Amino acid sequence: MDAQKVSRHDLGRKKFVEKVWEWKEKSGSTITGQMRRMGASADWNREYFTMDAERSKVVTEVFVRLVEQGLIYRGKRLVNWDPVLGTAVSDLEVVSEEEDGSMWHIRYPFADGSGHLTVATTRPETLLGDVAVAVDPTDERYTALVGKMLKLPLTDREIPVIADSYVDKEFGTGCVKITPAHDFNDYAVGQRHNLEMISILTLDAKINENGPTVYQGMDRFVARKQMVADLDALGLLESVKPHKLMVPRGDRTNVVIEPMLTDQWFMAMSKPAPEGTHFPGKSIAEVALEKVANGEVKFVPENWSTTYNQWLNNIQDWCISRQLWWGHQIPAWYGDNGEIFVARDEAEAKTKAAAAGYTGALNRDNDVLDTWFSSALVPFSTMGWPELTVDSKLFLPSSVLVTGFDIIFFWVARMVMMTAHFTGKVPFHTVYVHGLVRDSSGQKMSKSKGNTLDPIDLIDGISVDDLAAKRTVGLMNPKQAASIDKATRKEFADGIPAYGTDALRFTMASYASLGRNINFDLGRCEGYRNFCNKLWNATRFVLMNTEGKDCGFTGNPTDDELDYSQADKWIISTLQRTEAELEKGFADYRFDNIASAIYKFVWDEYCDWYLEVAKVQVQQGSEAQQRATRRTLLRVLEVTLRMAHPVIPFVTEALWQTVAPLAGKTLKAEGDSIMVQAYPLVNAEAIDEAAESWMTGLRAAIVDVLPDSPAPVSIVGETKLMLKVEIDVAAERERLSKEMAKLEAEINKAQAKLGNESFVARAPAAVVEQEKERVAGFSATLSKMKESFAKLG
């Protein structure tokens, strides 16, 4: 609509809401389509939307009950106002960053002509709403002046000098202008001193009728410029100095947020809940703090609980109304006399009005609820509340919530508050907090920056022309299209190749270190696509050597019929150790460790070593040895497929369907899936340290042989192993060169982080330690590679 230069007011509320529903159907299906393509294993029959009929009914019921409990109220309060969106926004939707500004020193003359006070301000345009100048009551410079009247520059009003401990006498001149209608701190001062609140801005941030006629209708920043010039002309501008300040901007519009005095609906955060609720005498925020303190809800990583606690300990009442048209319309009706009737529907509102003696017309509140209000109810609004359903008994609390750290306040804390208040339970036991996916240069992905990546494009591939077109359509600022197109063509000159779902999932798992943001690198996808190809080719090799052959799964083979080699025992032992790593990885929510363990076992152990040894054994071994090796090939591969399935579901499913029957698995029915099979568990009895020691010796002997000799036989202890050593030296040097370059790049990247004082100071200790471990690990691997490279001549 922005691109078409059509506003919601041009359409009208009904048409606008229809258009948004059309957009929702399209975007909603896009999101669920992406999730399905990514292999999300959800119960899709339970899909819901927070504005569907069932959820809307719960939202209304919750609102009405909270009003009845005295925990939702309407009042004129100072709120964060976005003049572009034309609505109040919560503190969480405001991003404050340091910017270069100015400090204006303005002379406020005494009304009796005896001199002036100099006031320093970063917002001279709000001078028009000043109602006092405050000084520190202990500041001896001004003690005698308290109570005197000042002439407010550029106006015909007079304002008093007051004393308030809010003032820091060491800052600026020690005199602070008080504008209660346009500053949160000043609002508090105004409340303490019963000062008048004069709003001088319209809702679109222009000077209103309370300002002098000459400034009325001016944008706030245009008015600032004109007022400063006028102050200077009157000799009232003492000085202007450069000054750095924190500027609050809306996270969606990037416009400077304006504190604005408006009528809004609020939810009390610190008021004790009444009798008849689950936690009478305790505030909603207090209960939410207790649920984490007593361990009913825990955070992973644990340090995020500190962030959660800090926010709740300093929480303000939640402004839940928004001056928008899309959302849950507030269930409140107004009479001509200004009385408010909160009800579940219009019929109930009329009944309440009649009971109060009002029989006139009723008009529903035009405002809607903050979107996070309905989202906070999801743990129980999806379970049939207020009825006590089977679902609520089974699934509330749920086990784990997976979410980003950026919505701990928006969503997580509010779900804990609301669920505890209305059900007495916590919504979930564990909150797993993952990092944010950023682009390759570390920038947050956003449509306005044109740096987003659609997972479908990574799965299927996309041409650079189509990618550029996709990134430049529907921009809030169409003027950015040219620069976004140019940047896209530079970064993805050849477009994006098709990596497949499994490679993308493996990449994301490998990135999932605790609390770490992700700078997304397509090179990782390529590496894991190669892994999937490796697994596929390894399976082809196993099938070629086992299909139609005796693999020891029929009948009940005796020990004489299955002669397991040390290599067979070693790979089975290594599999157990890998399973133990995975078990710990899942318990610790270390999906990066899970991905690493799977990769290392499949690529480094099973493919690079065991398959090579198995080739010799199935060709040269006795019948019992061949049978045992074929059995081991299949059994280990089948377990590996089940082991890797949660990370790479598609390729493992396809391969398992063929491998499982050969490995002695009886499929229950056609379409029996790997996903319903038992996940592999460690068998400690199968860990064979002797076999592991034997393999260590074999590896050492082979590594010693490889640069020096093409000898077909290596003897390790009493074991004779036939080796066919065919090395393409040039190819191996090229491969090692590429691998070393990648490792050096990773080392440099990690060292750059560790050399950044800001990163070391602000990042959690665990994250810093992890970066140090990465440097040490990469360096050790690089050293070994350099040794191998040198041996190749």
Characteristics of this structure?
single chain; 25 helices; alpha+beta; 45% helix; 15% strand; four-stranded mixed β-sheet; 793 residues
Can you describe what's shown?
- About 45% of the residues lie in helices and about 15% in strands.
- The chain is elongated and about 115 Å long.
- The chain has about 800 residues and is an alpha+beta fold.
- The chain starts with 7 loop residues before the first helix and ends with a helix.
- Mean pLDDT is about 90; it is low at about 710-720 and about 720-725.
- Strands 2-1-10-12 form a four-stranded antiparallel sheet.
- A hairpin with a 6-residue loop joins strand 3 (about 95-110) and strand 4.
- Helix 6 crosses helix 12, helix 14 (about 465-470) packs antiparallel against helix 15 and helix 23 runs antiparallel to helix 25.
Short description:
With 793 residues, this protein is of the alpha+beta class.
Record the SSE blueprint.
Layout: H1 8-11, H2 13-37, H3 53-68, E1 72-82, E2 87-89, E3 94-109, E4 116-121, E5 132-135, E6 149-151, E7 158-163, E8 175-178, H4 184-193, H5 220-233, E9 237-250, E10 258-267, H6 284-293, E11 298-300, H7 304-313, E12 318-319, E13 321-322, E14 332-334, E15 340-342, H8 346-355, E16 363-364, E17 368-369, H9 371-375, H10 378-381, H11 390-395, E18 398-404, H12 408-423, E19 428-434, E20 437-438, H13 455-460, H14 464-472, H15 481-491, H16 501-511, E21 518-519, H17 522-546, H18 566-587, H19 591-620, H20 623-644, H21 649-662, H22 689-705, E22 713-716, E23 719-722, H23 729-754, H24 757-762, H25 765-791
Parallel strand pairs: 5-7, 11-19, 18-19, 20-21
Antiparallel strand pairs: 1-2, 1-10, 3-4, 3-9, 5-8, 6-7, 10-12, 13-17, 14-15, 14-16, 22-23
Helix pairs in contact: 6-7, 6-12, 14-15, 16-17, 16-19, 17-19, 17-20, 17-21, 18-19, 18-20, 18-22, 19-20, 20-21, 23-25
